[in-house]
Amino acid sequence: MSDAAFTAKMLSEALPYLQRYSGAVVVVKFGGNAMGDDAAMAEFARDIVLMRQVGVNPVVVHGGGPMINEMLEKLGIKSNFVRGKRVTDKATVQVVEMILSGLVNKRIVQAIMDAGGRAVGISGKDDDLMVCEADDPELGFVGRPIEMNVQVLRDLYNAGIIPVVAPVATGMADNETFNVNGDTAAGAIAGALKADRLLLLTDVSGVKNAAGEIMTAITPEEVREMIKDGTIGGGMIPKTETALLALEEGVRAVTILDGRVANACLMELFTDHGAGSQIRS
Ligand code: X2W
């Protein structure tokens, strides 16, 4: 088959999926580990703009842990992680906000615009999108979302603009700044929007069973069982817990997938094969 015929056939085969997702809200968590070089960033942005072009409402929530680490190192500030979350003191939270709301957020916004889309970058602080309280005194300024005001996201996507959200938030009490884990923020936003899909883009291909094979479809009950018996461990625990919470709040399905794979989002939404591990009831 010629390249042109192949491309045309692929587009035709995608029709039922394009129809299914027309008007759908898809929250995409773009983790720092899934962000590659400029070419990979450009490809991610093209996928997001294509989603928008075919009638999906994508909402991007990003991380940036490795970029925060790099700047903290330059500044000689040490940071530790407890149960996957960064212990965040006053000096650290300032760096977190600078890197996430500044450097990382604007890099993604620029990439989406370079791909021909319209994007606006905000953080959880804007329009009180995500109001937090301290997650755990041991973690310092790490926030747990307790009040979500997602109308600003609807206003943006209804105007044809792709929202890009940095996981930084305001506190309930004294307007403190909180550092929120990117997965937690994406789950809370997807839940509050009752999104059709939450895609968690990371640097592993999905959830592995006891035999070490990637599971393509998992139920929430299976996830709970696998966390209990230790099959799911390490960094996969907060991701799967985020997925369970989002499903409880009304998100239809959550997929954990490798964002470094070319066109990962498109593969998941618009092909028979899908990508990564999909968790749904
Ligand atoms: C994260 C926020 C960034 C993030 C941090 O400080 O690293 C907490 O741990 P990734 O790239 O998605 O890991 N916050 C509380 O989640 O980035």
Structure write-up:
The protein is globular, with a radius of gyration of 18 Å. Helix 3 crosses helix 5, helix 4 packs across helix 5 and helix 7 runs parallel beside helix 9. The longest helix is centred in the middle third of the chain and has 25 residues. It starts with a helix and ends with a strand. The protein is built from 10 helices and 14 strands. The model has no long low-confidence stretch (mean pLDDT 94). The chain has 281 residues and is of the alpha/beta class. An 8-stranded mixed beta sheet has the order 5-8-2-1-11-13-14-12, with helices on both faces. Strands 7-6-9-10 form a 4-stranded mixed beta sheet. The structure holds N-acetyl-L-glutamyl 5-phosphate (X2W). The site of N-acetyl-L-glutamyl 5-phosphate has 15 residues, from helix 4 and strand 4.
Write the SSE topology.
Elements (H helix, E strand, L loop, with lengths): L2 H11 L1 H7 L3 E6 L7 H16 L3 E6 L2 H10 L6 E2 L2 E2 L3 H25 L4 E5 L6 E5 L8 E6 L2 H8 L3 E5 L1 E4 L5 E3 L2 H12 L3 E6 L14 E2 L1 H9 L7 H13 L4 E6 L5 H7 L6 E3 L2
Parallel strand pairs: 1-2, 1-11, 2-8, 5-8, 6-9, 11-13, 12-14
Antiparallel strand pairs: 3-4, 6-7, 9-10, 13-14
Helix pairs in contact: 3-5, 4-5, 7-9
The chain binds N-acetyl-L-glutamyl 5-phosphate.
Based on the model shown, name its key terms.
8-stranded mixed sheet; 10 helices; about 280 residues; binds N-acetyl-L-glutamyl 5-phosphate; alpha/beta; 4-stranded mixed sheet
